[in-house]
Amino acid sequence: MPAQLLGAHMPSAGVLGNSIRNGKAMGCTAIQVFTSSPQQWKSKPVTDEVAADFKLASKETGIVDIISHDSYLINLCAPDPEKREQSIQGIKGEMDRCAKYGIRWVVSHMGSHVGQGEEAGLAGVVESTRRVLDETDESVSICMETTAGQGTALMAKFEQLAHVIEALKGHPRLVICLDTCHIFVAGYDIRTPETFEKTFDEFNRIIGFDRLKVVHCNDSKKGLGSRVDRHANLGEGEIGIATFRLLVNDPRFDRIPILLETPTENEGHERDLATLKSLIA
Ligand SMILES: [Zn+2]
Ligand SMILES: [Zn+2]
């Protein structure tokens, strides 16, 4: 079996187990899902039947690297206490559903400081995250995602992610999801072998590859440092295909799910998955 785990974010298709089956049909060896609508606070409870079907689909397909992406509404440092509490309950609910499905990783954007400033925002994220980790099942970890830094979004700098990990004393259930589009528009160049090496050396020094559990593999419609998050199909954006060749052939990314969140029009994911496979030396 190749060392690279390649896949995509799969749309929900009735029961969640079908997302795994559809991922297998597309040729994925890892997938990402939403366990509920990412634009809503409400979610349906996970029945034993649906959870059993999910586990069966995982067993049937051999796809065991399954990642969940939490709601876009969550802001763990929201200045409004009610919104912050709602966010804490939101990610806890997500992690509870994942525990039932047997999903180990929840990707989260963590939060935006919304005018409080970076320091207060990070302190809020640390406090909320501590509580969430204390009050959720041991089997599920939080994958903090690197963001584009749009608006007042935190986690656009490696130092901010490292700060949260450090403040929580290197909690074993606090890991990282790296998004190639986000880090690029946040100002980390990865377009040449030299800049790719420099950025990932920096990532390794500040955070460490041992914390990296998920990669979101997206080209970018917007330029370096633009802080605007618009994903593009591979080779059709500002990052370019050379970066993705470096990525899939770099042993530091072996066995880490590399997942597409690129536009799905015109079989976008099928094309991008085929591209990734063709880039493997
Ligand atoms: Zn992403
Ligand atoms: Zn994005």
Give short descriptive properties of this protein.
single chain; 281 residues; alpha/beta; TIM Barrel; 8-stranded parallel barrel; two-stranded antiparallel ribbon; binds zinc ion
Describe the structure.
The chain contains 9 helices and 10 strands. 40% of the residues lie in helices and 15% in strands. The radius of gyration is 18 Å and the shape is globular. 45% of the residues are buried. It has a single domain, classed as TIM Barrel. The site of one zinc ion has 4 residues, from loops.
CATH topology: TIM Barrel
- The count of DSSP E runs of length 2 or more, i.e. the number of strands, is 10
Number of domains: 1
Q: What would CATH call the class?
A: Alpha Beta
Could you say what the CATH architecture is? Alpha-Beta Barrel
Q: Which sequence of strands runs across the widest sheet?
A: 1-2-3-4-5-6-7-10
Shape: globular
| Major pleated sheet | 8 strands, parallel, barrel
- Report strand %: 5-15%
Q: Indicate the low-confidence ranges by residue numbers.
A: none
Order of helices and strands: EHEHEHEHEHEHHEEEHEH
Helix content: 25-40%
Q: Topology of this structure?
A:
Blueprint: E1 6-9, H1 17-26, E2 30-33, H2 48-61, E3 65-69, H3 81-101, E4 105-108, H4 118-134, E5 141-145, H5 158-167, E6 174-179, H6 180-185, H7 193-206, E7 212-217, E8 219-220, E9 231-232, H8 241-248, E10 258-260, H9 268-279
Parallel strand pairs: 1-2, 1-10, 2-3, 3-4, 4-5, 5-6, 6-7, 7-10
Antiparallel strand pairs: 8-9
Helix pairs in contact: 1-2, 3-4, 4-5
The protein binds zinc ion (2 copies).
One zinc ion binds next to helix 6.
